[in-house]
Write a structure and sequence with these properties.
The structure is a homotetramer of 476-residue chains. With 476 residues, chain A is an alpha+beta fold. The first copy, chain A, has helices at 4-10, 33-40, 42-48, 53-56, 76-92, 102-122, 126-139, 276-294, 296-313, 319-344, 358-383, 386-389, 393-397, 402-408, 416-430, 433-444, 449-459, 462-473; strands at 16-19, 22-24, 57-59, 65-67, 144-147, 170-175, 178-189, 196-199, 214-219, 225-229, 252-263, 267-270, 347-348, 354-355. In chain A, the strands form four sheets. The first copy, chain A, has a six-stranded mixed β-sheet with strand order 2-1-10-11-7-6, with no helix packed on it. In chain A, helix 8 packs across helix 11. Chains in contact: A-B, A-C, A-D, B-C, B-D, C-D. Chains A and D meet through strand 7, strand 11, helix 11, helix 12 and helix 13 of A and strand 7, strand 11, helix 11, helix 12 and helix 13 of D.
Amino acid sequence: MRTAHEYRESLRDGRTVYYEGQRVHDVTTHPILRIAVDHAALDYEMAEDGRYRSLAVVPRPGGGEMSRFFAMPRTAEDLLARSELIETGTRLGGTVVPLLKEIGTDALFALQLVAHEMDGTLGTHYLGRVREFFTRCRDHDLAMAVAQTDVKGDRGAGPSDQAHPDYYLRIVDERADGIVVRGAKVHTSVSMNANELIVLPTRALGEPDNAYAVAFAIPVDTQGLSLVVSPYAGPAASPFAYPLSSRHRMTESLTVFDDVFVPRDRVFLQGEWQYAGSLARTFVEFHRFTAISYKLPLVDLLAGAGQLIAQYNGIERAGHVRDKLTWLIAYAQTLRKLTRMAALDCSRGALDIAVPDAATVNIAKLHFASQFHQAIAHVQDLAGGLLVTAPGQADWQEPALRPLLERYLGGKGVGAEARLRLLHLISDVTTSAMGGYHAVLAVHAEGSIEAEKLTIYRTAPMDRYVALAKELAGIA
Amino acid sequence: MRTAHEYRESLRDGRTVYYEGQRVHDVTTHPILRIAVDHAALDYEMAEDGRYRSLAVVPRPGGGEMSRFFAMPRTAEDLLARSELIETGTRLGGTVVPLLKEIGTDALFALQLVAHEMDGTLGTHYLGRVREFFTRCRDHDLAMAVAQTDVKGDRGAGPSDQAHPDYYLRIVDERADGIVVRGAKVHTSVSMNANELIVLPTRALGEPDNAYAVAFAIPVDTQGLSLVVSPYAGPAASPFAYPLSSRHRMTESLTVFDDVFVPRDRVFLQGEWQYAGSLARTFVEFHRFTAISYKLPLVDLLAGAGQLIAQYNGIERAGHVRDKLTWLIAYAQTLRKLTRMAALDCSRGALDIAVPDAATVNIAKLHFASQFHQAIAHVQDLAGGLLVTAPGQADWQEPALRPLLERYLGGKGVGAEARLRLLHLISDVTTSAMGGYHAVLAVHAEGSIEAEKLTIYRTAPMDRYVALAKELAGIA
Amino acid sequence: MRTAHEYRESLRDGRTVYYEGQRVHDVTTHPILRIAVDHAALDYEMAEDGRYRSLAVVPRPGGGEMSRFFAMPRTAEDLLARSELIETGTRLGGTVVPLLKEIGTDALFALQLVAHEMDGTLGTHYLGRVREFFTRCRDHDLAMAVAQTDVKGDRGAGPSDQAHPDYYLRIVDERADGIVVRGAKVHTSVSMNANELIVLPTRALGEPDNAYAVAFAIPVDTQGLSLVVSPYAGPAASPFAYPLSSRHRMTESLTVFDDVFVPRDRVFLQGEWQYAGSLARTFVEFHRFTAISYKLPLVDLLAGAGQLIAQYNGIERAGHVRDKLTWLIAYAQTLRKLTRMAALDCSRGALDIAVPDAATVNIAKLHFASQFHQAIAHVQDLAGGLLVTAPGQADWQEPALRPLLERYLGGKGVGAEARLRLLHLISDVTTSAMGGYHAVLAVHAEGSIEAEKLTIYRTAPMDRYVALAKELAGIA
Amino acid sequence: MRTAHEYRESLRDGRTVYYEGQRVHDVTTHPILRIAVDHAALDYEMAEDGRYRSLAVVPRPGGGEMSRFFAMPRTAEDLLARSELIETGTRLGGTVVPLLKEIGTDALFALQLVAHEMDGTLGTHYLGRVREFFTRCRDHDLAMAVAQTDVKGDRGAGPSDQAHPDYYLRIVDERADGIVVRGAKVHTSVSMNANELIVLPTRALGEPDNAYAVAFAIPVDTQGLSLVVSPYAGPAASPFAYPLSSRHRMTESLTVFDDVFVPRDRVFLQGEWQYAGSLARTFVEFHRFTAISYKLPLVDLLAGAGQLIAQYNGIERAGHVRDKLTWLIAYAQTLRKLTRMAALDCSRGALDIAVPDAATVNIAKLHFASQFHQAIAHVQDLAGGLLVTAPGQADWQEPALRPLLERYLGGKGVGAEARLRLLHLISDVTTSAMGGYHAVLAVHAEGSIEAEKLTIYRTAPMDRYVALAKELAGIA
């Protein structure tokens, strides 16, 4: 297994990364991007840390060790352990998931299942390719990003019906040894600091869209691949006022494929349009289980910060305060219980992979997503206006001001420093750019709220429900 | 074990029952009350029915058989089986729980736990008494009611501070062989058709309230005990228009104790005011697990009836319809998953009894209760105005009208009869007196919404939440 | 103007009314239907009552007096007075609108506007007919019902696409002196106790639907017209336990047109399919203003009953109680303020009729409808379980029981009688059949929630909103 | 009247302002603070701009002109004009209220009313002082800030019960010519760029708190007054990515009174503790009317931006999209209609001042505040993940990247530039620091959500509600 140091070293290749309009030649030393690199390195550091080692490291088939992320889940317990590992990384990451191995393995589980299905039905030979790539990632302990969402243009139209043929990534040429692809993906998380980029289709396709049915993996330094990293959240901030976002950050890129060549043994879908939807969904279902796991530290934090600031403000016994805290607790616990239930109710299908229960996963995700903004409102309500009017780090460090701040900003049984630290934490996670980031992720990451609803409807035990209604109504 | 027939026979004692202002001498033949008797007999009929026997009947310690309700839960699996039995009875009961053994065993589990605690701390000898009574109920397969809620008067004041000393049940005399109690309880379910009445305190008490700290069990035909059964829901209705409430009904009574004598070996709490709250709570926590189990057929029915009427109305593909159906599905499934989780996360404490996880139970109950009215609104929205304007049984049976109704009231791919039956089912469960009953039960039965919130707050892993907030805020 | 007595007399014609499968020969003496007749007579009694006379009666154009309902609204003040009259009738009606003149005049205002438009565009001569009929109703002070909603069959398909050609009312023949219509309408309120039945189309139509484009008015005793009155809410109930529904009731009918002949001068739309949607909508918009006016006593009652029962229960100072009461107050007041605003922001268009602001009307209606079930939940929460377990009238009148009830069912500073009366009022309006009726009406009457949303979207000042967004975004 | 230039000049006095730990000697040239100065100058620029002049300027009593803000409202029309002026300034201010005259005149109206009441009851002579100061502000067209919220310490305890006597501002000395005050206020908006600071108590007080009962006005450059301006929102941002917050900003300060002397003729409350609550409330009620007026551009923008981005994304016809847009429309319109109603239902009491209807104002405010986070969630849902992953200004201006962005980021019938501008606008107002600012202001500014609820309960027509309940229940 690689060390965090080796991981950082591995990012110093010729990758094409732009940030704030400029080419970045070494992401590990760039003043902003390095924050994201250091944050993501948690996925390696956990394996080196005695406190997390037994969770993060498991024996490798054939000998040696490997990251648990690469362990194919066979049982509910495997899924629970994977969930706990994801949660732990995110807790250490200050509510931001490291994601370097989480999302990639989600994709690789899905690719294996769909490759298996295609091979069986179509007589293709994808599974071998996927497994070879999977083994390579596992044995080299690689960091992986997944590019799925196309730029899409008019979302009401399919790939072939767009004003512009490149609004979805497509195969523009086939060569003896591989294919050439063109297009762009958006929201590609951790791409600038991964080793491998796994590319998946984003939706179900029709036959006319067959050139858009493509999945593959390429190293991030591949010729023709450009990453335009989002400047969202701006420059590095002070740790006093931004205790989380100053240290923890994930980046996304507009990921441009300018006639990129993909060798044949790295192509996992090529024109089989009937399987594009299945591949997209299978990945997303694994990934939503990752999502509900990595949301747990965030919802726990909201409950804890809400309780603590209520105490600091001296309002913890007021009826409405108790009511809001109870809401936050139920919000957090419901997510946790449903996440566990999704693992416990897993199904074992093809390839002996334990798949989390899709109905429960999506209900958990919808529960989280549809009420997140309300949770934020409650925490802001408990915290008070200082969230946006409190003094910052420079004020706190200024000798002429510190005595004033200490004198006037204490709370109930607590000094100004602890209270300000807590207020800044809440502000960071709810009102700053990081707060906005969490809010948008709640609504859109791992599929939209509407996509979750669709899955819930589709996976419901409707026959049982309708049979009960008919029986009680006396309908034959 | 008793048969349903034996159960009915056992109710023909001298019990004092009033209904609609009149003394009822045989509840099994009264035109209204017999509906409730027949309904509740399900708890006996399941044991006689091959389809449910393996669920309803288990070996008795010491040989023979007994109702599973009397099996002390030792494991999560025991709790899951108990939950399934409760759910099954309620499904057969058309969303109304039979309750003849459910609530009584909830009380007996709680009485054993608290008696054990009292005996250990105070040197009392309650556990033996409770167990003797428990064994009697079990071996004679008795039907049990539980009287807990006092009439209360001014709810903002304690028992001793009321304008009237009898607003809470109290001990008014002690004799050599027992005690005499006076007062009244309300909302006593299935009392008129039970064999034994178990009486519990309704709240925590202070030392001045010690005369109010009393728990015991008496046969329903005890001298001085009067049951004023609620006339709610009125006369018997036609099965066509009221498919559920015409056959399934539960009654509650105002339960008056007019200087009732209780023999000493049936007294389970006598003055130990410190344990009144604990006993009240321990019972309620078991009973809320019963509650979330028996709500499952109701929420499943709402989802199924919603889907089916949407199809019959030809609107099942509309966006807003899908949205409402998805809401109903998530509502139902979340309750089911949390109910299972409450069993799976049970704790084993004193007396080797498996106790459902209180936090999860209450979160599940609050989830159900706080959104039930919204669920009703969605189903009514899908069904349409015919819920309150459709023709009824007499119209349907009138030859001059039937052809008109058949001609005009069909739906999409369905004839008028099935559509009317379904509409009447939905009407029965959402707009009739039964609908109102379900709604009020959602809010108040097994403790109010506010009581559930209190328990959620009290049982939360707040230390863990706060520690996370402090850690991320950098507070020592 | 007619007296209430004259109104009752006028109903003794040969009308074809069925109730509970039987032909009813005199609706004014039928034990159930007479409740609805007596209730609706309020619209006449107000004019005879000195307390309401100035509100209910205005000078008639050309001399004499007339019901204010027939006054064409010319100003915001006219609309406010009309709204107050509707509210007053409903308050006297115990939350049930009398409706004998309300809905008919809504229809007649709409018919005039659309007739005017048709005459101008198509050269038809409908306005004269409508006005003649309007004058007749006004001068004879007639009671009017409106039949709009067709039985519809598959709601996802239009009239011409149904499995059955009569799922929407249609013209089946034209004669020299009029037309013949066939079909059935549902939810026709107050039809059995009105004098005239005004018939309107229920939706926009396409050219193939032209036979379905029909509007007219006929006396209720017209040959071929049958009213199958809904048995909903069942037999008459005791005034103690059902203080409102025992005295106030409205009926709806399945209204069957079995080749009914309509004389030409009573035909107001005949094949002009392009105007069916406009007529349906114009009526509904007037009628929704009526609706938000007649909902006011209901929402006020919920707030008042909530406050009073909280006091009686001794919980009025608890934080959560205050919160729920405040919610109920804001719910009631927002409806009232928006209703007034809808009048104040009226527009004056064709025929000098003041039309309430459609955007505001629909926002008010949606506000009411989408939160009504939550309002009920709050009131039930404040009231407690006695809503469904309290003793009833026969218990109260039984000398053996009265002392017990008086002894045990008092509240904080209030005796058992007042508390029981209030609980029964709340039960009547929230849990009984009347409660279900109010709930379904909230969702469906005067158009569904989805129809209200559609109107809100359609009437929004979207150009202004979008212009602001573009300006602030710097988009040319 | 002063020009914007004169206003800026007036800020160059010796005021003690700290920002990011450093003393700022000229707020008009400081790179960050000047943004707030320029923004607030809108209150002067409107008066100079022909488009707004008739709204912003009115004749001055005694001749000449004055800002309309200083016009005492006498009628509903005056309040509507004041509301429109506030809305217009905020629209020009990109959803941020200028506030330089809005809040100060709110305070001065309240001070006059309470001074009048005190003078009448206590024989004091405050009204003359207040009017003299009011006339001075009006005639010199001064910019005014209001310091109300104390730092508070333990919010569960009153001023006299704090661990620290200075947690509420108090009088520490009285001299022949005035008083000396000590303490600190927080959240003092526009203090660093106002001319006068008006100081009000923040809550009702008891007799032991009489030293805390103090109100007065002082110039911002008064000796001993220090403003520690909040660093929230950080450095200036690019106008492309932050179209609003790069140009519009308001600042708040921790406002420290270090034994500040206040001349007697500027003291408006001195020890009359019985009037502290009344003064606090009277100000807040005026100010909440200001608040609901200045929220209008924000809610309109959310509706407009939601509609436009839905079109750009090609999803505007989807059912769930229409549903969310309709929600946003109803949200915006309800606020607007209630705001108008609050003016139209004003009361005229003492001093002939028209006071907006407090019940309506608070219901409007609660409507806005309690659903704001949901509004944000809906807009984010419609916009998509590019809110936090889109390229920024530097990317857009980089020639190597522009073609890629133009190629890939267009939408339905719209180029990349307009779409990115709109996305950045939405991001600025919902996810950036400005978004967080709006969210916290929604919950806390002008009093908390709980304070609004309290006022709604207190001002409800409860007697009328309860009388209706009693009448319908038959309770004497």
